[in-house]
Structures are given as structure tokens and as C-alpha cells.
Amino acid sequence: MSAVLPYSIAAAALVALGLFGLVVQAAVLRKILAFNLLGGGVFLLFGVVARRGAGAGATADPVPQAIVITGLVVAFAATALAVVLALRMHQITGAATIAEAAEDGFPDK
Amino acid sequence: MGGLVDWLLAALVLGAAAWTLAAPTGFAAVVGFVGFGLLVTLAWVRLGAVDVALTEAAIGAGATGVILLMAVVRLRGGAEEVSAATPGRAVMVAAGLLAGGVGLALALAVLALPDPAPGLAAAAMARRGELGLGNPVAAVLMGYRGLDTLLESVVLVFAVLAVWSMAPDRRWGGIPGPRFPRQEAGPLALLARLLLPIGLVIGIHVAWVGAEAPGGKFQGGTILAAMWVLAWVAGLVQPPAIASQAVRLALVAGPLAFLLAGFAGMALGEGFLAWPPGLAKPMILLVEAAMTLSVAAALALLVAGPPERAA
Q1: Residues B238-271: pLDDT tens digits?
Q2: How far does the CA of residue B87 sit from the closest CA of chain A (Å)?
Q3: Which residues from chain A sit within 8 angstroms of residue B90, using beta carbons?
Q4: Which of B91, B241, B245, B302 has the most crowded CB, counting CB atoms within 10 A?
Q5: Residue A57 carries which DSSP code?
Q6: Phi and psi dihedrals of A53, rounded to 5?
Q7: Which family does the record claim for this protein (chain A) (predicted)?
Q8: By the CB < 8 Å criterion, does A101 face chain B?
Q9: Domain that holds residue A67
Q10: pLDDT digits (tens, 9 = 90+) for B99-133
Q11: In a domain, A102, yes or no
Q12: Are A73 and B156 spatial neighbours (Cβ–Cβ below 8 Å)?
């Protein structure tokens, strides 16, 4: 039980860090990074639950492990899509943020 | 002294995450994120989830790191725009309070989990033999949660389609990504020639042993995709045009085999995705082989991006 305590706290703190970065950072790429940190925290929570459910010869409960593997692949696909959307937006508008553009094409203060 | 190692590792994970957020440049942030992914991989090993650790190293740190690095080079500039759009102190404090509250609530919730923890470990270990698989995680992925895995394999196809559809109309059917000059000397040229055969063997091995030991189609497929990306970046191969039938077939082979096996379950077994007794192991191996090919193709195509030049 004590072995999962550091990771429980790290997972919760990761979600907090990711959420903070997602709200506060302006650049789209930084938002994508922050979102991945948030996701990493959520996955680590699954890891804590899996470790707590270890037993019957398994070092960790296989069901949460399988769900995290699925989640990691989907998170990668979502990240790839987000990155391409950001690149396409940059290509068309030259913008690196999603701040609302003013009439002159520059983002509002 | 396991406790000290775990506390240290947890602190390093958080430190890398904080660096990813606070890094002065986008490039430094992405490098921090890759380091974060590798530290989280170690955390997964410490948590006894080696299957997840392999996936995290291959996909979470590796593949995600590559697409972010390729993007950061193209998203240069805009420092003024970014600082203009960065929220003021009041929003920062509000966001900090929100994030801190969510983190605190999560931490309290995790600490309040029931002890002993309920779980499905015993059931998963006891019933993995019915599918002829020794690795309980693989048995859960293909059996108990087979529908999730099928849908996930379809998600990868849709992700590739979505990435392709970002191309301007006139580029549809063309060749994705930038063209890299052929490297004849230097570390990249050497690495692309030395690592490629070894990486291919390791990728197929990891996919194959997934039935009995940690590994599987996603981890193995990612390693295969990484080898192709290495050869591409070194200028040894060019991405195929997205209009190519072979590419499209490789992309959908896995989900198609999975679906067919699912329908075979309706004819031979108890229902959709129910593996018929006796035939379970060979059918799963066929589906896994097709999935390895499709995962490798999908990941490589996601890294390559939308088509940028005519075929």
C-alpha cells in the first residue's frame, strides 16, 4: 500500500499541473503539451488502482492496465490530430494561439 | 528501500512536468515532455505494469515526442502574439485555485479508496487460459474488453483520415510530410542503417511475445513505425502517396480482421467477438498480426502528417 502513495500524489498533482497549464498557457502547442500532462496524471491514477488491485499472481490488476493501453493509443491519435489542426491553423492564419482575433487580424489584448 | 526510490521518482515526474510547462521555448518544452514520458515509464515499471510501461515508452514518449518535435519546428515565432494572449494575474490566480482544488480533491479521493482494493485480477488470471494466452493483459484486451480494443483500432483509422483531410484540396492523394535529404554521412545515416534491422526484429518480437509476456501489437507496431520514421528522416525512403491502395489496405487490415473475427464469433461461438473455443488462440494470433501491421501503418502515417506534395 505504501508503494502506491507517492504515485497517488504525483498523479493528482499532474492533473492539477496539466489543468493549470491548459488554462493559463496561450500557445496552442503548449496547451497540447499541458493536456498530455493532464492525461498522464489520469493514466497514472489507473496505475495506482491497478497496483492496489494486484493479486492472484498478477503484479497489477490487468483490467485497468488494458484500459490504460487503449487510452494511451487514443491519446496519441488525439494529439496527432490536435497538432495537425494547429499546424493548419498556423499555415492559414499565421496564428500560434486561439485567442479571438480582432478586426486587424491580431489577437485582442 | 523501495519507498525512497518511489518518492524520488514521483518527484522527478512532477519536476519534468513542471519544466514542460515552464520551459522558455517550445522546443525545450517538448524535450521536457519526452523526458517526462520516460520517467513515467519507470513509474509504470515500479507499479508492476510492464505492458503499460512499454506502451508509454513507445507511444507516450516516443511517437508523441516525434510529432511534437516536428510541429515545434514549424510553429516558430509569434512570441508577441503569445504574450499578448497570455492571461493576466487574476486569471492566473483563479486557474491556480481551480487546478489546486481539483488536484486536492483527486488526492483525497485516491487516499480514501477502500482497502483491500476490489479488483478483477483474480478473475483475469483464472480465465486467461480460455483464450490460450499467458499474458493476462493481452487476454483482457482481446477477450473481456475486446470491444474496446476493436473500437480503438478503428479510432486510429479515423485519426489518419482526419489528419489527411487537413490537406488543401489540390494535395489530396499526394505524398505526406516534408522531403528529407538523403543522409550519406553522420550519426543519423549510421543509425538509420545499423538500427533498422535490429529494430524490425525487436518490433516483431515484442508483438509476438505479447501473447505470453509483456508486449503486444500496439508496442510492437509502434517500434516498427519508429523504424520507418527513422529511415524516412534519414532520407532512405519516401512516404507513399495516400492514394496508394497498398497503404490503405495496410491501414484497415487490422480492424477488418478484428471485425471478421468478431462476426465469426457469432457463427461459431456465443456472439459477436466471442472467441470460439479451441480456435481462440490461432484466431487471436491472426488478428494480432494484422493489427500490428495496421498500428505500424497508422502511427507512421500520423507522424508523416497530411499530404503536402503531388505524387
Answers
A1: 899 998 999 999 999 999 999 998 888 888 877 8
A2: 6
A3: none
A4: B302
A5: T
A6: -90, 10
A7: Belongs to the CPA3 antiporters (TC 2.A.63) subunit C family.
A8: no
A9: 2-93
A10: 999 999 999 998 888 877 777 877 777 777 777 78
A11: no
A12: yes
